[in-house]
Design brief:
Strand content: under 5%
Order of helices and strands: HHHHHHHHH
Structural class: mainly alpha
Shape: elongated
Number of helices: 9
CATH architecture of one domain: Alpha Horseshoe
Number of strands: 0
CATH topology of one domain: Serine Threonine Protein Phosphatase 5, Tetratricopeptide repeat
Length: about 170
């Protein structure tokens, strides 16, 4: 889509926090109006609609839309965002195992600014499955590079949580 459309979508999301909880339908209507401008079959439409449903507390409505966006070929940065958000929504609707399946390959994807979000969402899915040590390992591993000190030891502790059970 063109830059004007992208700017208007960004502006809509920038104003999201200005909506009261009971104004969720009004926010979704803004997103729906923007989506209506997209060409038929655009993966951006279901993605933006999924984000709007998800952000207004309706993971159940977001899940099929994220799937549709990915099925339509949403890739790159937005595709990775869709996988992160879909896995979180799957967890919220009681399907964390599908979230683990979706996000595990993302651990080996080319690195970008979403790496830590992948690990955080995957850790939550793992925790929902009772696999807390694996989740903690992911979170510590994501945190370690950001620490001013103890990066090496925290990285080792993260690894040892899953390697030796310690």
């Amino acid at each position: 889509m063109n830059q004007d459309w992208e700017d208007r979508v960004a502006a809509a999301w920038a104003a999201f926090d200005d909506y009261a909880e009971d104004e969720a339908p009004a926010f979704r209507a803004v997103i729906d109006a923007l989506v209506a401008e997209l060409p038929e079959g655009s993966a951006l439409g279901p993605f933006e609609r999924a984000c709007a449903w998800d952000s207004t507390g309706r993971s159940d409505r977001a899940v099929p839309l994220y799937r549709e966006a990915l099925d339509l070929g949403l890739d790159g940065y937005r595709g990775r965002r869709a996988k992160i958000q879909l896995s979180s929504s799957l967890r919220n609707v009681g399907q964390p195992e599908q979230g683990v399946t979706l996000l595990t390959p993302e651990l080996d994807a080319p690195s970008d600014e979403l790496d830590d979000a992948v690990r955080a969402a995957l850790a939550l899915c793992l925790s929902s499955l009772g696999r807390d040590r694996e989740g903690l390992s992911l979170v510590l591993g994501a945190l370690a590079p950001h620490l001013p000190r103890y990066q090496r030891s925290m990285g080792n502790y993260a690894r040892l949580l899953v390697e030796s059970g310690g």
